[in-house]
Design brief:
Blueprint lengths: L6 E5 L3 H13 L4 E5 L2 H11 L3 E5 L7 H9 L11 E5 L4 H10 L3 E4 L4 H12 L10
Parallel strand pairs: 1-2, 1-3, 3-4, 4-5
Helix pairs in contact: 1-5, 2-3
Length: 136
């Protein structure tokens, strides 16, 4: 990563999962982190604060991760449509994975995952590589 301080937005309704994501982001050197409990709050935060990466859950009240991903990719309200997005879900299937990538996710990860897997996904997304992670 370059010298510019990276900013991350965690969009997750589970406090425990937000903590795990926080640890993985800190392990990559990203310390400028804000959290949102749903996609609607995330859109507002990204508009005002910016983000170098967004890590979000798929299933949330108010606005889910898929809709939030679509809005980011559409560049709504000046949001950078190229912002890397990792979409997390506990309801994974090949159809879900295909839908996530079609909506614009850079990486789709099925819960549960290890801290090591999440760390690898964050590094991969920040470095501009898309698609499935290889099993470690």
């Amino acid at each position: 990563m370059n010298d510019k301080k990276k900013r991350a937005v965690i969009v997750e309704d589970s406090a425990q999962m937000r903590g795990l994501i926080h640890m993985a982001l800190n392990a990559t050197g990203i310390g400028d982190i804000i959290e949102a409990e749903n996609g609607a709050v995330a859109i507002d935060l990204i508009k005002s604060w910016g983000a170098d990466i967004v890590i979000m859950d798929w299933v949330m009240d108010v606005m889910d991760g898929m809709e939030c991903t679509r809005r980011i990719r559409a560049g709504i309200d000046g949001i950078d449509p190229q912002t890397p997005i990792i979409l997390l879900t506990g309801q994974a299937s090949k159809d879900s994975e295909a839908a996530a990538y079609a909506a614009g996710a850079d990486l789709f990860m099925e819960k549960p995952f290890s801290l090591k897997q999440l760390h690898a996904g964050i590094v991969r997304a920040i470095n501009g590589r898309k698609g499935e992670l290889q099993s470690a």
